[in-house]
């Protein structure tokens, strides 16, 4: 199973790299690359894992993924079973975009802190999300000078902290070795697939081909959280999807997402989302 490092494809000598993905599901393996990634989800929904962040994504969401931040936009299971369409527009850039000297000019030096502060990634809301969404839709089909002008408008928006929420802790990410990345991917794939039932530590440690003690230390070092906490985050994200998709009783959602105790489910749900399941269903 291939994973990291991931090399962003280039076509020709273009200064601005834009990628439009339109396929049955988005790239579903944990990966990283040195470029900063600005992504608009045009169509589809699922779970984003980025650093120590786990959360839902859906149509219209705009995210920044930091340099070398391990991440995956994992579409919901239905995208792997039915002929659906997932689409995303992504802009890749770093301090070499438009040339290193460009970022030293007085007019754009105020943007330099963004490179350092964006390591943990961001998501946007309100008017800023709408503006970035429109600019990304335009840049997907723009050419030559128009593409550079749109890029300049985007970095102007990104330099402001208004309507911006950090995803993960901003830490310098070291490149993950191929073997290490494959192991993490196997753990994630297994967790997404089997999260609807009890997963014992012995079971998931065997997936990683490690002892329980070694696996717990390994997972905490790589993700800054315990495996149990990560598994609960995946389950709660699945619960959020079910709560918004229909009128199933909360108890049914609890058991379908892998929890065996309703009071435990309610407690974990509020701890992760800040809301009770009932409040979440009516407020989102």
Automatic annotation (TrEMBL):
Domain HTH araC/xylS-type: 182-283
Pfam families noted in UniProt: HTH_18 (PF12833)
InterPro entries (alphabetical): Homeodomain-like_sf, HTH_AraC, HTH_AraC-typ_CS, RmlC-like_jellyroll, RmlC_Cupin_sf, Tscrpt_reg_AraC-type_HTH
Presence of the UniProt keyword Transcription regulation in the record: yes
Sorted UniProt keywords: DNA-binding, Transcription, Transcription regulation
GO molecular function: DNA-binding transcription factor activity; sequence-specific DNA binding
Protein name as catalogued: Transcriptional regulator, AraC family
């Amino acid at each position: 199973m291939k994973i990291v490092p991931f090399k962003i494809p280039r076509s020709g000598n273009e200064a601005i790299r834009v990628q439009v993905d339109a396929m049955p599901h988005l790239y579903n393996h944990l990966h990283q690359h040195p470029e900063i990634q600005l992504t608009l989800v045009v169509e589809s929904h699922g779970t984003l894992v980025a650093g120590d962040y786990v959360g839902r994504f859906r149509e219209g969401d705009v995210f920044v993924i930091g340099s070398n931040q391990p991440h995956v936009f994992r579409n919901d299971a239905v995208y792997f079973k039915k002929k659906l369409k997932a689409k995303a527009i992504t802009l890749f850039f770093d301090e070499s975009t438009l040339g290193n000297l460009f970022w030293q000019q007085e007019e754009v030096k105020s943007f330099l802190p963004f490179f350092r502060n964006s390591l943990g990634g961001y998501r946007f809301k309100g008017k800023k999300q709408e503006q970035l969404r429109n600019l990304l839709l335009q840049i997907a089909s723009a050419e030559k000078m128009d593409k550079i002008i749109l890029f300049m408008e985007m970095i102007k928006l990104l330099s402001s902290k208004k309507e911006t929420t950090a995803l993960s802790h901003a830490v310098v990410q070291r490149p993950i070795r191929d073997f290490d990345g494959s192991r993490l991917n196997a753990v994630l794939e297994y967790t997404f697939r089997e999260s609807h039932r009890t997963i014992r530590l012995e079971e998931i440690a065997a997936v990683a081909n490690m002892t329980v003690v070694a696996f717990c230390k390994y997972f905490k070092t790589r993700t800054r959280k315990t495996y149990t906490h990560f598994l609960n985050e995946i389950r709660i994200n699945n619960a959020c999807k079910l709560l918004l998709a229909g009128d199933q009783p909360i108890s049914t959602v609890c058991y379908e997402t892998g929890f065996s105790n309703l009071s435990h489910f309610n407690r974990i749900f509020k701890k992760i989302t800040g809301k009770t399941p009932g409040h979440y269903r009516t407020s989102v």
